[in-house]
Amino acid sequence: MGYNILVTGGAGYLGSTMVPELLAKGHKVTVIDNFMWRQNSLAHVCNNPNFEVVRGDVRIENEVLPLVKKADIIIPLAAYVGAPLCAQDPVGASSTNHDAIVMMLKHLSKHQRILMPTTNSAYGSGDENNFCTEESPLYPMSLYAIEKVKVEKELMQHPSAISFRLATVFGMSPRMRIDLLVNDFTYRAVHDRFVVLFESSFKRNYIHVRDIARAFIHGIENYEKMNGQIYNVGLSEANVSKKELCETIKKQVPDFTFIDAPIGKDPDQRNYIVSNEKIEATGYRPQVSLDAGIRELIKGFAMIRNTRFGNV
Questions:
Q1: Confidence of residue 126 (pLDDT cuts 50, 70, 90)
Q2: Rounded CA gap, 53 and 115, in Å?
Q3: Domain assignment of residue 305, yes or no
């Protein structure tokens, strides 16, 4: 049986990959998005009669609540994602990443389900062994991570909720993001042939954007046993350092060069190994390896070059 699903921010990096997959499963999907990046990333599903799209702002109650009331499932993807963007516009970040979610939660019935992406960047540097499970203490440092932790606490008060703590996402999407670490380093390898690393030994976990869509579909299809829980979502074989990531990219771009320099600091101080055993125990397995994702990105970056402020 298909559900009526509301996806906020559904034209973004995650949503433009997830929405077609939800439609393919027979669900009716409504997207609300403010299209702040001027994207047309859902053009390829406009022919589907089960797809509806609304241009609107999730922070405006009378725009989003009529859509919320009709939904069986809400997937709130609308967000200012990442520490740099949140630092650039902290008011916009807080009102979107926290206030808009809390407003929706107040109006949900106990039967309406909400599946939400949060972040494993809130683990900071983890414990003394840098190993993190869903039970590990949280040490959010950036505004982005702090807001995600706050909203997750409120989310889990709802009787029908699942939180997915996402690893760093990579891969091609109709609404592309080049700033994510794997995407960024691969872009630099393809177009610049070099990158300067800071904190090159810091490890983090990764996950392909299509495997995020699969995780949400898995949550919908296994809702009864997953409800009320928090799950890390990442590639268990991809807990790698920045240097190891560059070495992996170099296997496919042999003339890629990378060097270490004490030039920067991760605002979230992400340096951890993340356990994904909990979601794997429910039967979920990612399908796209880090190597396969890099291979995909190399093809994609043959089509993309960010030369807005360049002369050549």
A1: low
A2: 19
A3: no
**Cβ-based neighbour number of residue 166 at 10 Å:** 25
Residue range 207-225, pLDDT digits in tens: 999 999 999 999 999 999 9
pLDDT value for 82: 86
**CB-based contact 305:181 (threshold 8 Å):** no
* Structural domains counted in the chain: 1
CATH code of residue 162: 3.40.50.720
Q: How far is the C-alpha of 185 from the C-alpha of 130, rounded, in Å?
A: 24
Query: What is the rounded distance in angstroms from the CA atom of residue 100 to the CA atom of residue 163?
Result: 16
pLDDT in tens, 50-69: 999 999 999 999 999 999 99
Q: Which domain holds residue 43?
A: 4-300
Q: Which helix (H) or strand (E) holds 262?
A: none
Residue 13 domain flag: yes
Render pLDDT for 10-25 as a digit per residue (tens, 0 to 9): 999 999 999 999 999 9
Indicate the DSSP class of residue 137.
Answer: P
In a domain, 294, yes or no: yes
Structure tokens that stand for 103 in this block: 């407003």
Q: Give long-range contacts, CB 8 A cutoff, 24+ apart: 57-60.
A: 58/8, 58/9, 58/32, 58/34, 58/96, 58/100, 58/104, 59/95, 59/96, 59/99, 59/100, 59/103
Examine residue 309 and state whether it is found in any structural domain, yes or no: no
